């Protein structure tokens, strides 16, 4: 039994750590615009239309054009805003989102150039708690952004965000407890290794569904996007943001979705493991993980096209009256079964 | 006469899934799955949008677009005799006609007079087609062109030469029975 303390399993030299961090950062930020155009194209097809198709072949350069547009915008802020906090809030949002990426395992430990390299940022022994810790700080990005804007709509969005994130973080955490009890470890790589026999979304189906539902709320995605609620409160906490600060929030939101997809892949969909007992060579691992994350991301888009936004009181009553009891029940039943074995 | 029974008119409406009940569970998950299926089958259906500047919806033959003035095909004389009936019929008051006498040296139209000035202010025109109805010589008809945006208002005042010119057919016409 491994002691559950915050020990970080370092066995690589420092330069490998830096290179790994840069590679993960680079790949994710290269993938983000692709995900954005993919989302818009897929949503278009699901609504019998093309989506963006003007810039470049099939409109594939649309994100590039938009980045140029955002980058050349004049930065301005309302006179009622608080300058320092207004500037720092998007940075907090994107910083926490990227930090959570560090623990997503993209593969097993490999031998590259004579060094043992784990295909993940770091392997902390508190795995999911790390994500929740930074998710808790990410909430400051929303809260500060909405409050420092000095605008009614931003403030309303931030308040909704505060309530929603706190409510659903509980269910999300409790849904993971089932997985942690079953695997007996908090390390994400350990959890993946424990899924060698069976991926956890089969025994933990209820937990998986609860986790996904809560994740929609945690990442402010439809049908739980009352934080942005563009038809009611313009844009929520980022109403007053424009240009690069807006892009920072946008990227933070999509990075959060990547993190949640990675968490779902790692905890429920077997990480880098392949089904039917296939054991590919080690370099295939990141591709398998990215493919699974891509499928989860597709599901996010699919749900966004399908379901309308919940009303605020429906959101709250669903979170506290349905999701939380279900998550607790799932945890208790799992605990009883594990102990009885 | 039987007394009014309000319960006959009451339609039961479920506003939200009832928490805990089996029916509530079905409504949350079953209906969500049905919705997911609905959006997914849209993908193989393909797209129904028309890529406007490249593709255009064909218009019907009776579509009332930009006006056209006509000439006689055999003699090349203008059909318009400058009677100003179109200007009188126009509810938006956007047509201006100044008539002048035909002379043997300068014969423009088939009648006694011709329109020396014929202007339609398309920024005021409501495309009702009354001018077409009012014209006794079928000199003015409504065309099929609907792309008339321009950069200044004065560019939208179409003169006689512009209305007489053979229009660039930019709008596809629906075939019979289409």
Quick structural gist:
The complex is a heterodimer of chains A (341) and B (178). Chain A has 341 residues and is mainly alpha-helical.
Task: Explain what you see.
The complex is a heterodimer of chains A (341) and B (178). Chain A is an all-alpha fold and 341 residues long. Chain A has one domain (79-109, 123-340). Helices cover 64% and strands 2% of the residues of chain A. In chain A, helix 3 packs parallel to helix 9. Chain B has a domain at 67-164: Alpha-Beta Plaits (2-Layer Sandwich). Chain B has 5 helices and 5 strands. Chain B is elongated and about 95 Å long. The two termini of chain B are 55 Å apart. Classes of the chains: A mainly alpha (341), B alpha+beta (178). Chain A binds chain B through residues 44-50, 53, 302-303, 305-307, 314, 317, 321-322, and chain B through 16, 19, 28, 32, 35-36, 38-40, 42-43, 45-49, 51.
Tell me about the largest β-sheet of chain B.
3 strands, antiparallel
Return the string of H and E elements of chain A.
Answer: HHHEEHHHHHHHH
Q: How much helicity do the residues of chain A have?
A: 55-70%
Number of helices of chain A: 11
Secondary-structure topology with pairs:
The complex is a heterodimer of chains A (341) and B (178).
Chain A: H1 14-46, H2 62-71, H3 83-101, E1 109-112, E2 115-118, H4 127-148, H5 152-183, H6 188-194, H7 205-218, H8 230-233, H9 243-267, H10 285-306, H11 312-340
Antiparallel strand pairs in A: 1-2
Chain B: H1 22-40, H2 42-45, E1 67-69, H3 85-89, E2 95-101, E3 113-121, H4 130-134, E4 140-142, E5 157-158, H5 160-164
Antiparallel strand pairs in B: 1-4, 2-3, 3-5
Relevant terms:
heterodimer, A: 341 residues, two-stranded antiparallel sheet, 11 helices, globular, B: 178 residues, alpha+beta, Alpha-Beta Plaits, three-stranded antiparallel beta sheet, 5 helices, 5 strands
């Amino acid at each position: 039994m491994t002691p559950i303390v915050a020990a970080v399993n370092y066995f690589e030299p420092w330069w490998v750590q830096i290179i790994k961090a840069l590679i993960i950062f680079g790949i994710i930020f290269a993938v983000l615009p692709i995900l954005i155009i993919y989302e818009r194209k897929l949503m278009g097809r699901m609504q019998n239309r093309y989506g963006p198709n003007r810039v470049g072949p099939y409109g594939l350069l649309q994100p590039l054009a938009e980045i140029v547009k955002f980058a050349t915008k004049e930065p301005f802020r309302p006179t009622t805003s608080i300058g320092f906090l207004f500037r720092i809030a998007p940075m907090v949002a994107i910083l926490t989102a990227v930090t959570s990426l560090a623990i997503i395992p993209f593969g097993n430990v490999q031998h590259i150039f004579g060094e043992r390299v784990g295909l993940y940022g770091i392997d902390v022994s508190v795995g999911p708690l790390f994500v929740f810790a930074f998710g808790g700080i990410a909430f400051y990005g929303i809260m500060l952004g909405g409050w420092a804007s000095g605008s009614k709509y931003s403030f309303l969005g931030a308040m909704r965000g505060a309530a929603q994130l706190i409510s659903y973080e509980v269910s999300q955490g409790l849904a993971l407890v089932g997985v942690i009890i079953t695997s007996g470890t908090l390390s994400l790589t350990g959890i993946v290794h424990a899924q060698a026999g069976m991926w956890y979304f089969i025994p933990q189906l209820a937990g998986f569904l609860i986790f996904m539902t809560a994740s929609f709320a945690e990442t402010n995605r439809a049908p739980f996007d009352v934080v942005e609620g563009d038809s009611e409160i313009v844009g929520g906490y980022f109403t007053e943001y424009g240009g690069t600060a807006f892009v920072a929030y946008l990227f933070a939101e999509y990075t959060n979705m990547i993190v949640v997809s990675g968490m779902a892949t790692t905890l429920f969909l077997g990480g880098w493991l392949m089904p039917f007992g296939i054991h590919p060579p080690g370099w295939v691992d990141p591709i398998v993980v990215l493919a699974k994350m891509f499928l989860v991301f597709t599901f996010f888009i699919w749900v966004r096209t399908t379901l309308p936004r919940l009303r605020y009181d429906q959101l709250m009553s669903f979170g506290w009256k349905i999701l939380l009891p279900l998550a607790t029940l799932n945890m208790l039943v799992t605990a009883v079964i594990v102990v009885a074995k | 006469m039987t007394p009014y029974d309000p319960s006959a008119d009451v339609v039961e409406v479920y506003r939200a899934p009832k928490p805990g009940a089996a029916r509530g569970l079905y409504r949350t998950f079953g209906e969500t799955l049905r919705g997911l299926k609905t959006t997914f089958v849209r993908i193989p259906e393909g797209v129904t949008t028309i890529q406007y500047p490249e593709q255009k919806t064909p218009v019907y033959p009776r579509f009332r677009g930009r006006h056209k003035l006509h000439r006689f095909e055999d003699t090349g004389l203008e059909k318009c005799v400058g009677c100003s009936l179109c200007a009188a019929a126009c509810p938006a008051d956007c047509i201006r006609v100044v008539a002048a006498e035909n002379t043997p040296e300068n014969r423009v139209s088939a009648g006694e007079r011709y329109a020396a000035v014929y202007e339609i202010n398309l920024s005021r025109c409501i495309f009702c087609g009354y001018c077409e109805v009012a014209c006794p010589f079928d000199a003015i008809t409504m065309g099929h062109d609907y792309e008339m945006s321009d950069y200044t208002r004065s560019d939208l005042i179409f003169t006689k030469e512009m209305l007489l010119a053979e229009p660039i057919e930019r709008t596809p016409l629906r075939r019979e029975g289409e």
